[in-house]
Specification:
GO terms for molecular function: oxidoreductase activity, acting on NAD(P)H, oxygen as acceptor. This is 3-ketoacyl-ACP reductase. Belongs to the short-chain dehydrogenases/reductases (SDR) family. By secondary structure, the chain is of the alpha/beta class. It has a single domain (8-209, 250-275), classed as Rossmann fold. Helix content is 41%, strand content 13%. It contains 10 helices and 7 strands. A 7-stranded parallel sheet has the order 3-2-1-4-5-6-7, with helices on both faces. Strand 2 (32-37), helix 2 and strand 3 form a beta-alpha-beta unit. Helix 1 crosses helix 9 (250-261), helix 3 packs parallel to helix 4 and helix 4 packs parallel to helix 6. It starts with 7 loop residues before the first strand and ends with a helix.
């Protein structure tokens, strides 16, 4: 406990899933939280995104731990709006020490037009860049930046490209964004190292969240079925991992985020941490 006492942490995509888990775990270790989310659907992304009620629940859970929380409804693609919300939150909480650029979407399916590529890339990569860059004016020595990647960044882009596989344009945009997060975080880590600000990325495999549990994703795993059920998709989920599990849990990712946010990792930077039950090994990492 108290590994993050006195720190303020920003988390995007905080209304549910990995983002909520990160917010709660960081708060339980003593951090005050800035929890941001779009709280609206994006047309090309066919599964529903989080709501304002979800974001309020995240805030309730953070407050239950005894920490302060400021929430904001904002689209990470809008850097101007993001800066306004963040600057106000930092003023309320008195600083910023940890940035978890986590917001993401994963549109799936060949029926989705090219807009799926644009939206996935803009949220999953430009959203990370926007989040980090509006945060830099607030970070000082000891600051920690953590970006959410994916094992999808290890898949050859042609295998995610439009027309061929079941992922479609959205999957291609998602995969490209996750590839670029790897290089972006390494380059930024070198740039910020003289300022003692660390930059790392975590790369999960399947995570037990709404991004995994939806019909478009089930169809990716079971293209042989027109309307696969969760049970039918779950049979195939373990194929990605070397260890016998269909997915990892949000807590598994949050434990790594807490470590990278804390001073325990004060000399860890530029790292790509795969929390994937060996999926990267199977992909030839």
């Amino acid at each position: 406990m108290n590994r993050l006492k006195g720190k303020v942490a920003l988390i995007t995509g905080a209304a549910r899933g990995q983002g909520r888990s990160h917010a709660v775990h960081l708060a339980e270790e003593g951090a005050d939280i800035i929890a941001l989310d779009i709280c609206a659907d994006i047309a090309s992304n066919e599964y529903p995104l989080a709501t304002t009620d979800d974001l309020e629940e995240t805030a309730r859970l953070v407050e239950k731990s005894g920490q302060r929380v400021v929430t904001g409804v904002v689209d990470v693609r809008d850097r101007t709006a993001l800066k306004l919300v963040l600057d106000d939150a930092v003023a309320q909480l008195g600083g910023l020490h940890v940035v978890v650029a986590n917001a993401g979407i994963c549109p799936q399916g060949n029926h989705i037009p090219y807009r799926g590529f644009v939206d996935a890339f803009d949220v999953d990569f430009l959203g990370v860049v926007n989040t980090v860059h509006v945060s830099l004016d607030h970070l000082t020595a000891g600051g920690s930046v953590i970006a959410t990647g994916s094992i999808a960044g290890l898949v050859d882009q042609k295998d995610l490209a439009t027309g061929g596989g079941p992922q479609g344009p959205g999957g291609a945009g998602y995969g490209l964004a996750k590839k670029m997060i790897r290089e972006y975080t390494k380059a930024l880590a070198l740039t910020l190292s003289p300022h003692s600000i660390r930059v790392n990325a975590v790369h999960p495999t399947n995570v037990n969240t709404d991004m995994l549990h939806n019909l478009p994703m089930y169809k990716v795993f079971r293209p042989d079925l027109p309307e696969p059920t969760r049970e039918e998709a779950e049979v195939v989920f373990p194929i990605l991992q070397a260890m016998p599990t269909p997915w990892v849990e949000v807590d598994d990712i949050s434990h790594a985020v807490v470590y990278l946010a804390s001073d325990e990792s004060r000399f860890v930077t530029g790292q790509q941490l795969f929390i994937d039950a060996g999926a990267g090994l199977k992909l030839g990492m």
